[in-house]
Design goal:
Elements lengths: L1 H13 L7 H8 L3 H13 L3 E4 L9 E4 L3 H14 L3 H6 L3 H10 L13 E6 L14 H10 L4 E4 L4 E4 L2 E6 L5 E6 L13 H13 L11 E7 L3 E6 L6 H4 L26 E7 L2 E6 L12 E6 L11 E3 L10 E6 L2 E7 L9 H10 L2 H4 L7 E3 L24 E6 L3 H16 L3 E6 L2 H6 L8 E7 L4 H10 L10 H15 L4 H17 L3 E13 L3 E2 L15 E2 L8
Parallel strand pairs: 3-12, 13-20, 17-18, 17-19
Antiparallel strand pairs: 1-2, 4-5, 6-7, 7-9, 8-9, 10-11, 11-12, 14-20, 15-19, 15-20, 16-20, 21-22
Helix pairs in contact: 2-3, 14-16, 15-16
């Protein structure tokens, strides 16, 4: 690096002088002529310049620069990018150069790094946390599943539960006691053993520490460990959904001892371990001591970059194809759940059902979505298969000067829908103040008493049965704006659901809850979303889930067969 710095300085001082003498060069660089001659020789060996010293009286030395400092920096950066060292590449650049490099990052996604199997994938926002207890975003939850292990998993193809780090489980007659036996020879990424005490500590942490999902574990009385790597959960009441909860990303097993930067550099026991996490990238390396079949790739390198177009036509991209080459395959994934509007009952207009009903009448589906859209359909219930919404034909006259404060997220889809809501409410006579806030602020909820309307989105994971229970049962936004009597009724319904062994009966009970929430205008379902996934031709092993993600373990890079002939 020192030689490069000296070259940059020499170029700035002498790039417009073709015949400087050695004394002039030494003087400019503040060194002796001998040292200057040595520097020129080393730079010439690198191919950066050509130096011809003067020979004889009347002849002049000649200095020819063969590269510029910018070109030299680009070569260095390309080498760093090939090695996946984004942070080091950006560190050497100024603000404008960083913007230019960020715009060109897609060009470097397919650079090879020796003989290792590395797949580089773009992601369009940084990861907020990798602590399973606080991984609320869809991206974070997926990454947690790659980094950590759980007692159970839900197989979306067979629609059934199966054990993971547990190899067997049993329960008592009423589903209030659950026993799990761990596999032998389980290890965390740092080499430490994963045992029953780690499982016990993980679930007591989930029960006792504050999080959006803490409510889901509050009926856990105690956890006991026993012979043969047994872990036993004792619950306050029957819960036939308990093994479903153990399959969620938030129920991942974490070490009893965790570093202070655990959320950024977590230690798990999953197929991949975190080796790099900075504002520019997240790098996952295959865990050699993984207890199951290992990953097909050596590394997954996720680069944070801006979309190459202002409005990308996909939500996730697996692999990169340069413009003009083979087209990427587009896959459409329909989501469970919906985008919805909730209303603050402390606002005088919205305290009574008639006021909430007035908002619903203004936001009719045919007005919000006058034309069919590829990624959005009008919602008539909280799930696509539920038909609970009744839109009043007319709404009352709005008093002049009535103000409503609307808050939404900052994604493209949420901004577009919030703009339509604002326009319809203003057409009806309201004065609307609209503010967008990032996901982190939405979770913090400091805005709850500073707005009247909140535009939210709920996406259920693969297990729709438990997804409904989690939505209604955890610390969801809408529950903060329900009256105490409604929250008590909801908790009673959910407790009854936990006592139902049959999944069909549980789904019918969820539908009844959805009907009460929608027809009481506590939640106004607005739309059901689809998202698009882009897959490059050379990426294989893509088995899509309803969330639009794939297991990183199954991904591999398919080489071009024609190049081997």
């Amino acid at each position: 690096m020192k030689l490069r710095d000296q070259f940059n300085r020499l170029y700035q001082l002498m790039h417009d002088q073709k015949q400087p003498g050695l004394p002039a060069l030494a003087d400019a660089m503040h060194c002796s002529e001998r040292n200057m001659r040595h520097l020129l020789s080393k730079m010439q060996d690198q191919g950066w310049l050509r130096w011809t010293p003067a020979r004889g009286r009347g002849h002049h030395s000649e200095l020819e620069f063969r590269v510029t400092p910018d070109a030299l920096a680009l070569d260095q950066i390309q080498g760093l990018l090939a090695q996946g060292e984004l942070e080091q590449a950006f560190a050497s650049l100024g603000r404008q150069q960083k913007k230019q490099l960020a715009a060109r990052l897609p060009e470097f996604l397919d650079l090879r790094d020796g003989n290792r199997d590395v797949l580089r994938l773009p992601m369009y926002r940084p990861v907020s946390t990798l602590d399973p207890m606080h991984a609320y975003g869809r991206l974070e939850a997926h990454l947690v599943r790659q980094i950590f292990s759980r007692l159970m998993t839900f197989d979306h193809q067979t629609r059934s539960l199966r054990p993971v780090i547990a190899h067997h489980w049993e329960h008592n007659e009423d589903g209030s006691v659950w026993h799990f036996w761990l596999r032998p020879r389980l290890h965390f990424h740092d080499g430490s053993d994963l045992g029953p005490e780690d499982v016990k500590a993980s679930f007591l942490r989930l029960r006792d520490q504050t999080s959006m999902n803490q409510r889901l574990y509050r009926h856990l009385l105690r956890v006991e460990t026993g012979p043969d790597r047994r872990v036993s959960f004792y619950l306050k009441h029957s819960d036939w959904l308990w093994p479903h909860l153990l399959a969620t990303s938030m129920s991942s097993v974490v070490p009893r001892q965790r570093a202070r930067n655990f959320a950024q550099f977590p230690v798990g026991s999953g197929a991949f371990q975190v080796i790099r996490n900075n504002p520019y990238q997240l790098t996952l390396r295959a865990f050699a001591s993984y207890y199951r079949e290992g990953a097909l790739l050596d590394e997954i390198d996720l680069w944070v970059m801006q979309p190459c177009v202002a409005e990308p036509t996909f939500d996730m991209q697996y692999g990169y194809t340069p413009p003009g080459q083979a087209n990427q395959q587009q896959q459409k994934v329909d989501e469970s759940g919906c985008t919805y509007l909730i209303m603050n009952p402390d606002t005088p207009l919205l305290r009574q059902q008639s006021g909430r009903q007035q908002i619903a009448a203004i936001l009719k589906p045919e007005l919000l979505f006058p034309e069919p859209e590829p990624a959005r359909a009008p919602a008539y219930g909280l799930l696509p298969e539920w038909q609970h919404k009744t839109s009043p034909e007319h709404h009352q006259r709005v008093a002049a000067g009535t103000r409503l404060r609307l808050i939404s997220g900052q994604t493209k889809e949420m901004r577009q829908l919030a703009e339509r809501i604002k326009a319809l409410l203003e057409q009806a006579g309201f004065s609307v103040e609209w503010k967008t806030i990032p996901l982190k602020e939405q979770i913090a909820r400091d805005w709850l008493q500073q707005c009247d309307l909140y535009l939210g989105r709920e996406m259920l994971h693969d297990d729709k049965d438990f997804g409904c229970f989690e939505w209604f049962g955890n610390d969801s936004h809408f529950r903060h704006w329900l009256p105490d009597s409604m929250n008590q009724w909801l908790d009673k319904q959910l407790c009854d659901i936990q006592s139902m062994p049959d999944a069909a009966n549980r789904m019918q009970a969820y539908a009844n809850i959805g009907r009460e929430l929608v027809q009481g205008y506590w939640i106004i379902p607005l739309s059901h979303e689809s998202h698009f996934v882009s897959v490059a031709p050379h990426i294989a092993g893509v088995r899509m889930t309803p969330l639009g993600f794939v297991s990183f373990c199954e991904l591999w890079v398919k080489k071009d067969l024609s190049s081997t002939n």
